[in-house]
Design goal:
alpha/beta
Amino acid sequence: MSQLYRSTISSRLSTLQEPPAEEGENDDELEDSLGSLPSVMGLPSGLSQNRAKKMPNPAYAPISLAGYFAQALQVTLPDRDIDVRAYYTPPRSERGGVFVMHHGAGYSGASFACLARELVQLMKGEVGVLAFDARRHGLTTAIASDEDLSMNVLVDDLCAFIQKVFPDPSTSPVFMLVGHSMGGSAVVHASPKLQELKYVISGVAVLDVVEGTAMEALPHMHALLNTRPEGFDSIEEAIEWHVNTHAINNPTSARISVPSILSFPRTRANGSFEYRWRTPLRSTAPYWESWFASLSSLFLSIRTARLLVLAGAERLDTPLMIGQMQGKFWLEVMSDRGVGHLVHEDDPTRLAEILSDFWRKNERLEIKGTVIKRVGER
């Protein structure tokens, strides 16, 4: 949350249905195990039809998710009234670990693409990565109304998703939960619920969100959103805007993830096309406080290892400052890496190293049948 705060102040997997091809996909680009992955995805308010349109810059052409995940899945959760789009690279071993990744508000599972590939390569397939689009985000679609983005709804969605993909906790992988911003709060809330369901949670990693700074930033969010364009004439223009404004500092990741946070083009009366935000952030304002309230105390109380990764060295709030002095969690600050709020997109290589180290330090060790507790466990 640090970069955002600065700105404001200034079913088994084999039986799950493969998602249908999306309209407008480049079939040649996706001729591999990711044949169903979208190369362009996408909704948001209008641009002036009289404004001169900018020619798309090929340097910012979208990049397909093919090559970053092994599978695309469409997971129906009838009790939650949503069809969840997910991206998965399984671990080499059936009992290997899986990093489950929850994106922040307005983003999508595709934002973890570069990180996913880095992690799998670094750990040589020891772990897999499962990322998904939350309701009202990316290519997750609603069976009924999906307007409610309160934290309780997001947490119940995540738990239902895990139960659908891995229905038997006794044979499921060990999970590491990773969440960015809003998603960081979701994984913190979900961890004890999943443990009650008998899933093994090796640790929880929260990316660039602290309750204190988040709550202080909320009154300024509307002013920040006023600086965003209402839409774009092309996907390339949208990607270029994210790179030039340093919303995303990694052009490769931007070319992968930005298409997923926009709508598909719609033909206008004059025959032109317009791309809009898939999840207009202003519409999520009623839920902002529920996302971050009590996050620090909940993070410190979860019964698993804890990692907090920040983009900058802003102050921790009081509970986290005390918790850090007591050694209750592992803190990493990436301010020397030139990253912004999207730490997982801006420097996926360094974050993969951090997550790999965190995973290895918190694996369960058995000595003569005794399980050694990991950092943060009580």
